[in-house]
Amino acid sequence: MDYDRVLKIMKVAERLKCNPRHSWTSTGRRESVAEHTYRLCLFAWLVGREFPECDQEKLMKMCLFHDLGEAVTGDIPCFEKKEADRETEKQAIDTLLSELLPWEEEAELRELFVEMEACVTPEARIFHALDKMEAVIQHNEAPIATWIPLEHELQLTYGEKEAGFHPYLRGLRERLKQDSQEKMQKELPEMGKKEQNSERETDR
User: Which letter does DSSP use for residue 142 in this model?
Assistant: First the structure.
């Protein structure tokens, strides 16, 4: 691939470092799309041997490229994303692939995005499960004060359906649910105490 094209792709990818996600880190700052992508790739590599039937290279490519469109659109949380948002992201991906990549690579990634959307192959199903569970892990690591109210329930259910097809993924999702429950039991009472103390200070 020629130098100019490589640098153009790198320039677009840099936007993923700049675009924040809804999730927060353990240090109390918003994470970037690029940070989510990196750890999803690591996640897939760590658990890859549990799926000997899976094409590991294809799975890693799905993890690497799945949020490419967010270089243009930014991140929209799952509970806010509408069909119009999904269509906008598809158009962004279509434009990026046609403008950035040589024909052979463009064709490969177009097929990959079709496969991810269909979510029928083992690789696509594993990818979708891991993608959602990485978000659950990130929320478990973030201060619970960064959660919005609906996430108290979402943490217990998000990704369960996607993980349900494989025993390893089911077990992993159940472990994350336990972690979420323990976090809420530990931290929610503390939040309540802080709010009560704040109200008392205001009343004085």
Answer: S
- Tens of pLDDT, residue by residue over 51-94, are 999 999 999 999 999 999 999 999 888 888 889 888 999 999 99
- pLDDT above 90: percentage of residues in the chain: 81
**24 within 8 A of 146, measured Cβ to Cβ:** yes
Are the CB atoms for 59 and 127 separated by under 8 Å? yes
pLDDT tens column, 193-204: 444 344 444 444
Say how many Å lie between the first and final Cα of the chain, rounded: 69
Judge whether 157 and 176 are in contact, CB under 8 Å.
Answer: no
CA 202 and chain centroid, separation? 39
Instruction: Provide the whole-model pTM.
Output: 0.89
Q: What structural domains does the chain harbor?
A: 3-203 (1.10.3210.10)
Taking the C-alpha atoms of residue 48 and residue 45, their distance in angstroms, rounded to an integer, is 5
Q: Is the dihedral of CA 162, 165, 169, 171 positive or negative?
A: positive
Residue with tokens 């948002």: 85
Bridge partners of 30? 24
Q: What are the structure tokens assigned to 123, written together?
A: 């690789």
